[in-house]
TrEMBL record:
Residue ranges occupied by any GTP cyclohydrolase I domain in the UniProt entry: 10-186
Binding site for Zn(2+): 79, 82, 150
Membership in a protein family: Belongs to the GTP cyclohydrolase I family.
Protein name: GTP cyclohydrolase 1
Subunit note: Homopolymer.
EC number(s) per entry: 3.5.4.16
Reactions that this protein is recorded to catalyse: GTP + H2O = 7,8-dihydroneopterin 3'-triphosphate + formate + H(+)
Metabolic or biological pathway: Cofactor biosynthesis; 7,8-dihydroneopterin triphosphate biosynthesis; 7,8-dihydroneopterin triphosphate from GTP: step 1/1
Broad EC category: hydrolase
Gene3D superfamilies hit by this protein: 1.10.286.10, 3.30.1130.10
Length: 188
């Protein structure tokens, strides 16, 4: 859990917000809403101030240096512009250089960066940079496809529009073949 979260402040702000939108904060259905929202924030923003390196330091000897892919890691995040959800799948590939991490640790790294106010491209780069820095593989590629609620339920209102972002590091930057085989596998 995020120790920096000040639940009292959030609850006070939610009461003000409810008043701001013209709600009656004393009506029964809303009485517990400020505390519900402050508890929810502990979950949604648990990644703020968290350091993903703790998940990537415990490594195992790689049986070989072939590409490892963890695909279809579901994530939910919140866009920093509108505080509306964006969600989808993260696919990660890396080429080890003598060591691998436990598979769950890639998904844990995704959680650290998804559980905060984000923009998709930044989250994509942060995941790639952390894997590069802490696992020191020969290369890494992160591919994210997501739907942004700020594009669907408000503003331009285009449900179904998908945002794709990717980040390449090391051998994935130089080898089109590696990029192609990763993309073929995640699309397969
Ligand atoms: N690049 C990028 N843009 C995002 C992301 N999430 C939301 N946005 C966009 O952020 C932009 C914010 O634009 P602004 O013009 O400041 O805000 P706005 O008037 O509410 O924009 P509209 O959505 O066009 O109504 C919008 O175009 C959103 O679609 C993201 O993860 N990456
Ligand atoms: Zn947005």
């Amino acid at each position: 859990m995020n120790n920096k979260i000040d639940k009292n402040k959030i609850e006070e702000a939610v009461r003000l917000f409810l008043e701001g939108i013209g709600e009656d904060v004393t009506r029964e259905g809303l009485l517990d809403t400020p505390t519900r929202i402050s508890s929810m924030c502990e979950e949604l923003f648990a990644g703020i101030g968290q350091d993903a390196s703790c998940h990537l330091t415990k490594t195992f000897s790689a049986p070989n240096n072939e590409m490892v892919i963890e695909k279809d890691i579901t994530f939910y995040s919140v866009c920093e512009h509108h505080f509306l959800p964006f969600y989808g799948k993260v696919h990660i590939a890396y080429v080890p250089d003598g060591k691998v991490v436990g598979l769950s640790k890639l998904a844990r790294t995704v959680e650290v960066y998804a559980r905060r106010a984000q923009i998709q491209e930044q989250m994509t780069s942060q995941i790639a940079d952390d894997i590069m820095e802490h696992l020191q593989p020969r290369g890494v590629m992160v591919y994210i496809e997501a739907e942004h609620m700020c594009m669907t339920m408000r503003g331009i209102k285009k449900p179904g529009a998908t945002t794709v972002s990717f980040a390449t590091r090391g051998e994935f930057q130089t080898s089109e073949e590696l990029r192609k085989s990763f993309l073929e596998i995640i699309k397969g």
